[in-house]
């Protein structure tokens, strides 16, 4: 019964959230509203408490509806917030207020929810612990799937249109189940090494643990108020969250019990930072954490035998020249010249390749990314890539006796290919426009990339031969946004998203590039194959 209540709560939350942040097709001006008073200035805080606080919480931190904080709304256009407050959205719990509030009142509310909350909301250890809900499995329940499919060739499809997730059989290309998610999942789901459990992170800070075999939520916790992503350790024992608000990283055990809170501050404690991202480095038995506002890269080991940590430089640590900190679950800092926004590992997990933006230093002009060696704990190279490389979605592959990195670019109409031995560019491959995702698979000679950031090229996927670094084909979805490729376990098929409310997952033959099947979906923003993720395929993000 508790699991059913939790599922219903998640479903209502998703409906509320979808109503607030989805753009309505009708303009606010097309709906009649009571005449506004020309004398009184609308009291936005009072209006919020009267009409919004019950669903979105008094401090706008979110409850039944999503958080309404500047950090949560930074990707939402002001006009969209304005329209949704006025119009609401059909088939959700979000009503329209154009018949209740005047146009100036709606305008005041739309502006106010994008302003900082005063006093600033907090979310501490007690809040985290109090938010946790768990539903243990029955003691006599068999530990096997309730469905018949290859558990290693499953896909999770995150549908942003109505905040649901579809579990897809990667052999038959049929939906096994579809379930409601928290509002605005972000950063990609992360799997335990056996593929049974998956962890989702939401923008509002919720971590959801879902049992793919038994098809139910087993635990949830709110790690923060605005979260970037979550990572799961290679042994499946630990989960870490990266937060913008509060400014911290938070460690949990696999059952989502709080283990440790890491305030994201500089070594001297004088500067706090948002946490850009956290990723698992399985071969190193550690989490790697990027700070958005402080020039440091953190490595937090979950190896009980991790070496002690010596902050700063030591002539000879064996002589006891500094006081060591425990290596297990301790913060090992790498000082940088510029903060990293997002990053990518090489296949050995020795190097981190991270985007630097915005550029704060005039030196090394043109270097928008940097290479950091995690073993020697320092930057070893700049990557002079024009525009804004999206290294978090880059891929690596063998080429001409070396290994190269290929990265999409959020501002440039090109794929940049870099030699990972010399760290020098080897090719720039033109695309129809700026893109967000690039994917491949070790069993295919082709890499696929989108141009979804381009108004003119968003409907095109560009296919590149990894052997020649030449464009060999393009597939299109005219007038739509076509993005985010993911491959089946064997690399035989490539799945793409028609990134629209009335969208679809399109299955392509990875050799002929011909469409094989199409499954209707509600804005499928991402697809994630269990096998490719847990084996750290060279063609997918880690």
From TrEMBL:
Name under which the protein is recorded: Cytochrome Cbb3
Alphabetical list of Pfam families matching this protein: Cytochrom_D1, Cytochrome_CBB3
Transmembrane segments: none
Keyword match Metal-binding: yes
The Cytochrome c domain, residue ranges: 39-117
Nucleus keyword on record: no
Residues in the signal sequence: 1-29
Biological source species: Acidovorax temperans
Keywords for the protein's UniProt record, in alphabetical order: Heme, Iron, Metal-binding, Signal
MF (Gene Ontology): electron transfer activity; heme binding; metal ion binding
């Amino acid at each position: 019964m508790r699991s059913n209540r939790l599922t219903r709560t998640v479903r209502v939350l998703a409906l509320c959230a979808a109503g607030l942040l989805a753009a309505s097709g009708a303009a606010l001006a097309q709906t009649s509203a009571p005449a506004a008073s020309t004398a009184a200035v609308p009291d936005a805080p009072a209006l919020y408490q009267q009409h919004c606080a019950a669903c979105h919480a008094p401090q706008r931190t979110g409850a039944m509806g999503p958080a309404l904080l500047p950090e949560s709304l930074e990707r939402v256009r002001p006009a969209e917030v304005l329209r949704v407050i006025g119009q609401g959205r059909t088939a959700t719990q979000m009503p329209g207020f154009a018949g209740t509030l005047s146009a100036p009142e709606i305008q005041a509310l739309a502006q106010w929810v994008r302003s900082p909350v005063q006093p600033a909301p907090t979310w501490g250890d007690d809040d985290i612990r109090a938010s946790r809900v768990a539903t243990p499995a029955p003691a006599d329940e068999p530990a096997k799937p309730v469905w018949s499919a290859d558990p290693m060739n499953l896909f999770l499809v995150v549908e942003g249109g109505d905040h649901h997730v579809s579990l897809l059989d990667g052999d038959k290309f049929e939906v096994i189940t579809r379930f409601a998610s928290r509002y605005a999942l972000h950063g990609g789901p992360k799997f335990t090494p056996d593929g049974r459990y998956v962890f989702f992170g939401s923008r509002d800070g919720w971590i959801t643990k879902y049992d793919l075999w038994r098809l139910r939520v087993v635990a949830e916790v709110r790690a923060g108020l605005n979260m970037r992503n979550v990572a799961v350790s290679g042994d499946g024992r630990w989960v870490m969250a990266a937060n913008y608000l509060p400014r911290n990283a938070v460690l949990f055990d696999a059952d989502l019990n709080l283990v440790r809170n890491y305030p994201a501050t500089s070594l001297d404690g004088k500067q706090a930072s948002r946490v850009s991202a956290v990723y698992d480095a399985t071969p190193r038995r550690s989490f790697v954490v990027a700070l958005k506002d402080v020039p440091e890269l953190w490595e937090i080991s979950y190896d009980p035998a991790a070496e002690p940590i010596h902050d700063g430089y030591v002539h000879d640590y064996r002589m006891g020249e500094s006081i060591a900190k425990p290596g297990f679950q301790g913060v090992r800092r790498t000082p940088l010249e510029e903060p990293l926004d997002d990053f990518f590992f090489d296949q050995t997990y020795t190097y981190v390749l991270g985007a630097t933006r915005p550029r704060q230093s005039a030196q090394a002009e043109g270097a928008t990314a940097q290479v950091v060696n995690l073993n020697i704990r320092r930057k070893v190279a700049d990557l002079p890539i024009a525009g804004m490389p999206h290294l978090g979605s880059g891929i690596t592959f063998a080429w001409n006796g070396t290994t190269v990195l290929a990265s999409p670019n959020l501002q440039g109409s090109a794929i940049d290919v870099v030699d990972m031995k010399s760290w020098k560019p080897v090719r720039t491959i033109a695309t129809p426009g700026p893109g967000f995702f690039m994917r491949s698979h070790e069993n295919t000679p082709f890499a696929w990339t989108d141009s979804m950031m381009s108004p003119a090229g968003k409907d095109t996927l560009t296919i590149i031969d990894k052997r020649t670094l030449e464009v060999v084909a393009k597939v299109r979805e005219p007038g739509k946004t076509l993005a985010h490729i993911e491959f089946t376990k064997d690399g035989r098929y490539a799945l793409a998203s028609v990134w629209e409310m009335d969208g679809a997952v399109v299955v392509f033959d990875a050799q002929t590039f011909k469409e094989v099947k199409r499954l209707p979906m509600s804005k499928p923003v991402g697809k994630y194959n269990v096998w490719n993720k847990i084996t750290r395929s060279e063609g997918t993000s880690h």
